[in-house]
Amino acid sequence: MSSSPKKQLARALSACAALLATLAGAPAAHADTWDDWNKPVAPFKIYGDSYYVGVQGLSAVLVTSPQGHILIDGAFPESAQHIADSVRALGFRVEDIKYILNSHAHVDHAGGIAELQRMSGATVLAGPSAAAALQRGKMGPDDPQYKDTTPYPPVTHVGTVHDGEVVALGANRLTARYTPGHTQGGVSWTWEACEQQQCAAIVYADSINAISSDDFKFSDNARYPNVVQDLQHSFAVLEGLRCDIMVAVHPGSGDLWEKMAKANGKPHALLGDPGACKQYVAEARKTLARRLDRERSAQ
């Protein structure tokens, strides 16, 4: 039986907190979080020409076409080889990846991009704030997790995408949806995948959780004064999307592995939950409200 959305989010937040403590050099409840998240998993078809090629705790998606492929996210630096192996296991060439898209520029989603770009020669695209962080190989001081993040290999030749901009390759059209708040440069990606004239709207949902380092306050922060408004904007964006299939940047947040286990090898395991994006947002709203209440109580 699937666990409740609240339990799913609690697991994801606990894992995030443990990872932040590890990266900051502080004692963590689960010191092996990084290794746990980076465990290889067998790649699989999501729907149509879209495939999961990420690792256990960090998503990456390959959208394929005869004209070349689009990869979303690169997970940890140590994940790059796992992702490349998954691409090859599906019968595709890493060298045929033409674009690498980023959700946000933390090490656990962007750390492997430089190596994957080296392997493929792909153009990397991200929102303007994330693009600057990718080229530095670290987040800026406006990031809610700035003091807890770790640097990663810088990425060269990074292009920027605007909100609503479409990245086209072959028959595929992926749209950038700005979803800031977790970081200023957060982007979710949406596209349509089809099989036998039946199409599904896929949402690759960026993090929208109010998670930060200890010094960052969401209720009043000069480094990122619009953080609450940005999160509320992101909530509205994701709630308003057609969402036949959702893949969250942390697959556990969308109950991906439980859905896969329940399907027991049957195709289209992630199809049939059109409320996934709304539920994802509902839990994030509760997290933000609890965080703001806690900060106000501490004043």
UniProtKB/TrEMBL annotation:
InterPro entries: Metallo-B-lactamas, NDM-1-like, RibonucZ/Hydroxyglut_hydro. The keyword Nucleotide-binding does not apply. It comes from the Bacteria. Residues 57-250 form the Metallo-beta-lactamase domain. The keyword NADP does not apply. Residues 1-31 form the signal peptide. Gene3D superfamilies: Ribonuclease Z/Hydroxyacylglutathione hydrolase-like. Keywords: Signal. This is Subclass B3 metallo-beta-lactamase. It comes from Rugamonas fusca.
